[in-house]
Amino acid sequence: MSMKETVVMMTCYRAWANARTYEVVLSAPEGEITKARKTHFRSIAYTLNHVYVIDDIFRAHLTGSKHGYTGRNTPVCPPVAALWQKQKALDAWYVEYAKGLDEGALDEMITFDFVDGGQGAMTRAEMLLHLATHTQYHRGFVGDMLNQIPIKPIPTDLPVYLRDMRGN
User: Fold this and answer.
1) For residue 90, which of 59, 66, 68, 62 has the smallest C-alpha distance?
2) Amino acid 119: pLDDT
3) pLDDT by residue (tens digit) across 46-61?
4) What is the rounded CA–CA span in Å between residue 145 and residue 151?
5) Range of the domain at 95
6) How confident is the model at residue 168, as a pLDDT?
7) How many Cα atoms within 13 Å fall on the side-chain side of residue 97?
8) What is the pLDDT of residue 28?
9) Averaged pLDDT score across all residues of the chain
10) Element spanning 106, H or E
11) Residue 35 belongs to domain with CATH number
12) What's the number of domains the chain is made of?
């Protein structure tokens, strides 16, 4: 599998897994989604908002635009239904973006400033793969918080995605 095929697969996988996560989250009582919990980002809603913010920051890095964020989350969290609409649109953007890149563009190094200080440098491929692993990491936290409600999360593992996409 080429790097481009890997990046496209992982970007599509991420969009699929986000949809499955939001399907469960949106079925939960609103009070449970915003309930403060002993987790890094305070709640299910703020954890999902963090994922969106990071995705939006990296879109700015990839396109050479300014993102306007001063942190890895926002002071006010949008309603989860509205956040899902924004995330879904951003996921679609990433899928199309990944499909449109050639191998040379994937290897291009991009420098950027971290919101909490310092400079970073990653290739486009590294950024796209980072977003897939970053999102999976935080979906794990969301799954744990859903279990506390208790609501059983839908599996979002890569082997499940591959099985579903291949029709096995």
Assistant:
1) 59
2) 97
3) 999 999 999 999 999 9
4) 9
5) 3-166
6) 76
7) 22
8) 97
9) 97
10) helix 103-106
11) 1.20.120.450
12) 1
